[in-house]
């Protein structure tokens, strides 16, 4: 909505700031900023606060199972292409994800380099 540049989208975007889905709230705040409206500023600052993010989530059994079963390529793809606020990168789960990704990177640095190029890096 914000990308359309329509001021009439402001009330809808402001309502979305309180959405329980972090990605929706984040995108609404960014869209408001793009429209020159600073009503989403507090939400952006809140979502950038590490303590706030860490308080949102622990790691579910489903997340742990996915991380443990993911290939190096799947982990890199998720890291590169996930939307802002993906809970797999937050708190305990985010720490675990990072640890597993680092472990896979160090097993085969040549493969990591190849995959990084596939993801659009370097």
UniProtKB/TrEMBL annotation:
Which Pfam families is this protein grouped with? HEAT_PBS
Q: Which InterPro entries match?
A: ARM-like (IPR011989), ARM-type_fold (IPR016024), PBS_lyase_HEAT (IPR004155)
The protein's name in its UniProt record: HEAT repeat domain-containing protein
**Biological source species:** marine sediment metagenome
Which taxonomic lineage is given here? unclassified sequences, metagenomes, ecological metagenomes
